[in-house]
Amino acid sequence: MRSTFKLLGLLLISTIVVSCNSARSSGKSNLTGWNFNDPNYGNYLKGEFKDGKTPPGMVHIEGGTFTMGLVQDDVMFDWNTTPKQMHVRSFYMDEAEVTNSEYALFMQYTKDVFPPSDPQFKHIYPSILPDTLVWRKGLGNTNLLSESYLRHPAYAEYPVVGVTWIQANEYCKWRTNAVNLKILMDKGVITNIFKEDSLSFKGRNNFDTDVYLTDPYALFDGDSTIYKKGIPVPRKKGEPKPAKDAFSGRQVTSSDGILAQKFRLPTEVEWEYAAKSIFENREYNNIRGRKKYAWTGKYTRNRTNAKRGDQLSNFKQGKGNYSGIAGWSSDGSDIPNAIKSYPPNAFGLYDMSGNVSEWVSDVYRPIVDSEANDFNYFRGNIYTKKLIDENGKVVIIDDSEVEIDTLVNGKITPKGLPGTIKYIPITKDDTYMRRNYSFADNSDLNDGDKKSTKDFGAEDDQILPRMYNSPIRPELERDSLGNVISNLEYDKKKRSTLVSNKTRVYKGGSWADREYWLDPAQRRYFPEYISTNYIGFRCATDKVGPMVRDQKKTATPRYSYSRK
Questions:
Q1: Which of 30, 300, 339, 521 has its CA 20 to 30 A from that of 444?
Q2: Domain ranges of the chain
Q3: Among 99-108, 363-372, 535-544, which is the least confidently predicted range?
Q4: For residues 434, 435, 441 and 446, what is the CA-based torsion angle, rounded to 10 degrees?
Q5: Mean pLDDT of the residues in the chain
Q6: Number of C-beta neighbours around residue 260 at 10 A
Q7: Chain mean position to CA 209
Q8: Is 37 within 8 Å of 234 (Cβ atoms)?
């Protein structure tokens, strides 16, 4: 009898839980009683969200707190890596660097859509090409790498290098469109454009996610035949069935949760958090010890029986020693190695220490101000809005309206691609009475703008920094009492520094770096238009919905303690 009551109790509880869950996920408004997605109630939308789908090629990084900038060795003795407690939101990150073959897909697609033979597109394809001449050495025989590293199939799965920060961002934008185009084709919303001979997808007819969400029929030169059945829409009772090949559904919206979030470069705090993967040193809610590398332990050599003595990453082991002695190549490569050649860290990420360094999205400053923001820290926000014309329509860049920008190094890059929405910085009207931000470009926020000086209300010429101007010491003239009567001045020579709003952080050691730089907390910088043979990149994207996938909390099993 008692067991029968227990069984009935369990059934009652399960029924209540199921009914609660069904009410939560049902198509009815709990506050109005209206039905969502019902033609009898206006067909107002409510999308369904199912957590757990990881973007292709990525791994889930569960967010949490950690100490940013906590390095094991600090031979520079500067403030560049001052420890700061930070919180990072959950996100997704590529399990390995973007390879030559993956970047080549971007190059080939861009060449097809924006043929360099067309005068209006002539600057687009060259602007994304990696600089293969970064392999040249004035006193070295490296011509083979200049000619073959990018395109030869032997290096297809090697990390792409010679890319600037600007080019890495362009790849991220293209990847967003490529992934979402496939999603729409798989859902039957858009026909397979690669099978269409009668349609041209060059120039402004190229697919763009933002344009699709703004106005789907602004794509493909307004050709509606490109759209198939769309998302199914319930029909009213008695409404006739549409024709067999007609577009009977509706277009995808942001509310459906179908399209992928935008791909981007990881922020510095995200990259460092993912690289350290400190949760493997966790017991309950405590961290036991610190990590010097992406893996656990204080040594760079493998301690397993099968690969004992092999290096756990690809780095320069000493002057003139990039891989070890022949017959015992301890790291297996004297240049970047193929991705996934070394063990992953606890998050499942490869080559977070060694192989190639990686661009991150942040503008560089020597000091990361933890007091400014300790939640998902990022420096480099530029807030924009869509440009609206006099007719109230969103402006889409036309083939004949491609604006170009000449970089400091003389390279030419387009400001916006044809077929994309034109964005402009927000204005003072957009920030009126806002408390969280006041202007569009926040790269200088609290470090370089007028408000970060004690005399922020003074005239410009009164607050110019004198960091790079030396005082002039002229021949001293004295009065009859021996007092100096000459005015001391600063020289007027114009000086500059590599640290600016165009300077970006890159993280991680590379095949050309000593062991010191393998610590994920170390940070370096380069102008965003510079490329090298040891900096690559990987993408990240935001995770929507709950922070944690598995609510079960367990202690890390590597530590065991017994009470006596």
A1: 521
A2: 53-187+258-376+501-542, 381-442, 444-498
A3: 363-372
A4: 160
A5: 83
A6: 19
A7: 17
A8: yes
Beta carbons of 159 and 536 less than 8 angstroms apart: yes
63-92: per-residue pLDDT in tens? 999 989 888 777 777 778 888 899 999 999
Place 290 in a pLDDT band, splitting at 50, 70 and 90: confident
State whether residue 210 is helix, strand or coil. Answer: helix
Closest by alpha carbon to 136, among 162, 155, 117, 112? 162
Across 303-312, 468-477, 541-550, which has the greatest mean pLDDT?
Answer: 541-550
> Helix (H, G, I), strand (E, B), or coil: what is residue 529?
coil
CA distances from residue 491 to 79, 182, 386 in whole angstroms, order as listed: 28, 60, 45
| CATH number, domain 53-187+258-376+501-542, options 3.90.1580.10, 3.20.20.190, 3.40.190.10, 1.10.760.10 | 3.90.1580.10
Kindly state the tokens that stand for 283. Answer: 């017991």
Q: How confident is residue 562, by pLDDT bands cut at 50, 70 and 90?
A: very low
Report the percent of the chain where pLDDT is more than 70. 82
Indicate left, alpha or beta for 52 from its phi (over 0: left) and psi (-120 to 50: alpha): left
Whether the CB-CB separation of 507 and 360 falls below 8 Å is answered with yes
Taking only the tens place, the pLDDT of each residue in 170-212 is 999 999 999 999 999 998 899 888 887 655 788 888 899 999 9
Classify residue 361 by burial, with Cβ atoms within 10 Å: 0-12, 13-18, 19+: buried
Which parts of 414-509 fold into alpha helices (H)? none
Q: Inter-axis angle of helices 100-113 and 165-186, to 10 degrees?
A: 80
Confidence at residue 413, expressed as pLDDT on a 0 to 100 scale = 92
**What kind and span of H or E run contains 111?**
helix 100-113
What are the C-alpha distances in Å from 449 to residues 279, 325, 368, 463?
38, 53, 16, 11
Q: Report which secondary-structure segment, H or E, holds 272.
A: helix 268-276
Burial grade of 237 (CB within 10 A; 0-12, 13-18, 19 or more):
exposed
Q: How far apart are CA 148 and CA 171, in angstroms?
A: 21
Secondary structure, 3-state, 280-335 = HHEECCEECCCCCCCCCCCCCECCCCCCCCCECCCCCCECCECCEECCEECCCCCC
The CA distance from 539 to 168, in Å, is 9
* Cα–chain center distance at 498: 23
pLDDT tens digits, one per residue of 331-364: 889 999 999 999 999 999 999 999 999 999 999 9
**Encoded tokens for 446:** 């609290």
pLDDT at residue 50 greater than cutoff 60: yes
Strand partners, 412: 406
